[in-house]
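Notebook p. 47: complex prediction with S-adenosylmethionine.
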Amino acid sequence: MQNPYETDRLVADYLFFHYIPHAEGSEGLPLPVEAWDFASRLVSELMDQSHPARRALDLGCAVGRSSFELSRTVPDVLGIDFSRAFIDAAETMRTHRSIDASVPAEGQRQRAFTAHLPEGIDTTRTRFQTGDAMDLPADIGAFDVVLAANLVCRLPEPDRLLKRLPDLVAPGGQLLLATPFSWLEDFTPRANWIGGTPDSAPSFDILADRLAPHFTLEHTTNLPFLIREHSRKYQYGISLGSRWRRR
Ligand SMILES: C[S@@+](CC[C@H](N)C(=O)[O-])C[C@H]1O[C@@H](n2cnc3c(N)ncnc32)[C@H](O)[C@@H]1O
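Predicted complex, structure tokens below:
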């Protein structure tokens, strides 16, 4: 099966998801505004901006919106994604500040749109590269902020990322996680799920146990989001957002 995140369809869906404002994207339909702008709310609702941060890492950055939002306050941001097509789109947003694309409207009819980088982004502060969140370069160093949004339940071996996190987050730094815990065998073999089986504890409790030796939980919040299928059909999800401080 082709990696879905490499398809033109998914690139366009994520450009729409990350960059199109509610007033434009909802087309006058009563779509819930609180579930819009997920990629920017991740940063505004999870990150503690009172601590100055020098380096940030956005793992599974897709087409880059959260990386750019991190760069508003962090001068050196690295966005990493496994998908070459997503990283190419993020890089085009960085260099051209816009991309033309289209998403399904109804049936085979498409809706054209232009994704624009929001105002106030200094694109020299962000870099993008392909990479595997489960197998990051040994010399990548430590970051003051690490964001992993809707990534954990898309990894074949999420524990490999969890084990790396204590080294990735600098002492005193913040780990920002968001996940709807949508365990699916298409992405993660059942044996590697963190919870989600009939006799397991809730996923967040298991995650918290694994992070507890190195991190202190500071904040949790529900982060709703909408995944578009076509103009009149969306999937409503709610990620559990959490902020952890590296001791
Ligand atoms: C559900 S999307 C979430 C994207 C983005 N963080 C957001 O919240 O909109 C999952 C992302 O993780 C990426 N991904 C999947 N496996 C990965 C891996 N092993 N390493 C890095 N990125 C990965 C996918 O390409 C995709 O961009």
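Notes: The first strand starts at residue 55 and ends at 59. The mean pLDDT is 97.
Next step: compare against the earlier run before touching the bench.
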